[in-house]
C-alpha cells in the first residue's frame, strides 16, 4: 500500500489510477500547506489530482477544524473517489472528522508520523503559556487521555508510517523526535512502516 514518496500512489511498474482520483493532503502542527508541496507533486506525477487543506490550529478549535475539513472535501473534491494523506496533527484532525460524516467516496488514509496516543511532549508542556498560545486547542487535546479514548478509529482502510530518527533526551524508546514509534501505531491499521527519518520532514523522504 505505502512507500514514503507517494504513500498509497502506484509505484514504478504499476499503472496509474484507472479513473481520476483525488488525494487530500493535511499538514502538521505549526506548518503550512507548503510543507506538503513535494508530496503533492509526487502524487500528481503518479496520476492523481491533489488538494491541500489549509488550517491554523492556533485560531480554531480542533472540532471546528475537522468540520472545515468535511466542508472542504464536499466543496473541492470533484472525483468519485478520494484519499487522505496527513502529517502529524493532520491525522488527529482526520480521526476527529469521523465524528461527523465524510462525503461518499473515501478510499484510503495514510498517516505520516501520527500522534495516535497522548503525546509525551504535549503532556510535558501543556501548562506552558507559550505552548498553549502557539498550539491552541489542538495542542491541549494532544495531551488528554480522555480525548484520545473517545477519538474515533478511521472507518476506512488506513496505514501508518512512523519515523525512528529521533533523540534520546526525552525518549527512552525509538522515536522520530516528537512521536515514539509505538505511539504512532493504531488498532485496525492495515499497514505499518518504520523509516529512518525525523518527524519534521518525513513527508519529503524518497
Lateral strand order in the biggest sheet:
2-1-3-4-5-6
Counted beta strands: 6
CATH architecture title: 3-Layer(aba) Sandwich
CATH topology value: Rossmann fold
Q: How many structural domains can be distinguished in the coordinates?
A: 1
Helical segment tally?
7
Characterize the main sheet: 6 strands, parallel
Give the overall form. globular
Average pLDDT: 86
> What structural category do the secondary elements indicate?
alpha/beta
- What distance separates the N and C termini? 16 Å
Give the low-pLDDT segments.
8-13
Q: Helical percent range? A: 25-40%
Oligomerization category of the chains in this entry: single chain
InterPro entries: AB_hydrolase_fold, DUF676_lipase-like
Pfam family, one: DUF676
Biased composition (Polar residues): 1-17
Domain DUF676: 22-101
Describe the protein.
With 206 residues, this protein is α/β, with parallel strands linked by helices. It has one domain: Rossmann fold (3-Layer(aba) Sandwich). Helix content is 29%, strand content 17%. The chain has seven helices and six strands. A six-stranded parallel beta sheet has the order 2-1-3-4-5-6, sandwiched between helices. Strand 5, helix 7 (181-184) and strand 6 (191-195) form a beta-alpha-beta unit.
Which features would summarize this protein structure in a list?
single chain, about 210 residues, alpha/beta, Rossmann fold, six-stranded parallel β-sheet, 6 strands, DUF676_lipase-like, DUF676 domain-containing protein
Amino acid at each position: 500500500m505505502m512507500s514514503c514518496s507517494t504513500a498509497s500512489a502506484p509505484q514504478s511498474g504499476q499503472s496509474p489510477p484507472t479513473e481520476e482520483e483525488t488525494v487530500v493532503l493535511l499538514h502538521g502542527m505549526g506548518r503550512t500547506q507548503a510543507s506538503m508541496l513535494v508530496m503533492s507533486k509526487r502524487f500528481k506525477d503518479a496520476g492523481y489530482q491533489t488538494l491541500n487543506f489549509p488550517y491554523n490550529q492556533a485560531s480554531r478549535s480542533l472540532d471546528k477544524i475537522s468540520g472545515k475539513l468535511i466542508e472542504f472535501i464536499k466543496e473541492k473534491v470533484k472525483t468519485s473517489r478520494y484519499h487522505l494523506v496527513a502529517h502529524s496533527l493532520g491525522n488527529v484532525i482526520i480521526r476527529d472528522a469521523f465524528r461527523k460524516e465524510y462525503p461518499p467516496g473515501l478510499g484510503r488514509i495514510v498517516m505520516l508520523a501520527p500522534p495516535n496516543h497522548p503525546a509525551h511532549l504535549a503532556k510535558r508542556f501543556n501548562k506552558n503559556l507559550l505552548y498553549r498560545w502557539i498550539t491552541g486547542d489542538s495542542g491541549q487535546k494532544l495531551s488528554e487521555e480522555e480525548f484520545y479514548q473517545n477519538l474515533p478509529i478511521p472507518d476506512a482502510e488506513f496505514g501508518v508510517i512512523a519515523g525512528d530518527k529521533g533523540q534520546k533526551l526525552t525518549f527512552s524508546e525509538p522515536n522520530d523526535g516528537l512521536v515514539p514509534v509505538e505511539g504512532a501505531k493504531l488498532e485496525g491499521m492495515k499497514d505499518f512502516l518504520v523509516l529512518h527519518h525525523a518527524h519534521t520532514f518525513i513527508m519529503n523522504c524518497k
